[in-house]
Predict the structure.
Amino acid sequence: MPALSTPIVAAIFLCAMAVESAIKGFFLSINKFNQSKTPIPAIMIVSNLLSLAYGPLFILSILATEDCHNTVLAFKVVMHLFFNSFSFFLLFKTWIVSQKRFTVACAAFLLIVHRFVWAGCDWTWSNTLQTKQGCFYLQDKVAIIGITTGGLLVDVFCTCVTFWSAMRDVPKTEESTASKMSRIYRVLVADNVLRTMFVLAVNAFTLNYSMYSSLSVTPGVPTVLLLIPAISHLVYTEAINVEFFWIGVRNDIIQEVELKSTDEEEDDYEQQQQHHTYGQRQSQIRLTSAPIQRFDNDKDQSLRNYPIRNHSMSHSMKMQNQGR
């Protein structure tokens, strides 16, 4: 076993953190899948399983002293399956956000095929040799540039489609749901932008290092190249499992909007009840006042049947009686 240089120790530490996150994400994904039975938690289960295999296989490949080719090839297969499952996760989410548009599905299919093609190139073109000191590994430069570029294209595509869907779909919704859709899209945009920033930083560093540095790993010689797979492992695993945080944010928005709409419906119902009660009272007033009006009319009619007394004549008659 080669000496534990600083890059190897750092790589082990980063992979341990990623495995811890993958264990939590795996059980959370199973729980979420049992609740919803939707494809996204199922994809996350597969990604976390691949992440759990990624770390130990990578540490084994950099510490191996024999059977170098098979050890490194096993790690390479799991590594690319993990990266491509992450890309598939992003592309599937983007397709859902875009209202399942056919053009988005076609573009996503081409991007995932592009990633698998470069993975096959990496499996074929990169070489591993067994020496007396251990395993000598030579990463193919063209393959790593193609792999990194494929990851960048997926990140940029998902972010652009999310922005486009937010501007295109929200104005078409009904006024009652426009506010909810707008807030959910803002969360989706924030999710994509933050995830893209971290993944883009890793891919940009990998691309820059691949273009200008040596891509060989010599036994006993410390190299930054050992850190790149470990950093990618941690960032990609966290980027997948941070989805649970954003799921909670979106659910809070939906519950808040539903609670608000329920309160508005209750207010409308109370107003309708008040109007209904007021109408009933007005009807009762009309029913009770109608007989009184008829009674007053009858009284007026009875008064018309009697002659009106002349007060001046009665006064003169009283004076005559007094004179007598």
User: Anything to note?
Assistant: The chain has one domain: 6-242. Residues 88 and 189 are 18 Å apart (CA to CA). Confidence is low (pLDDT under 50) at residues 292-306, 315-324.
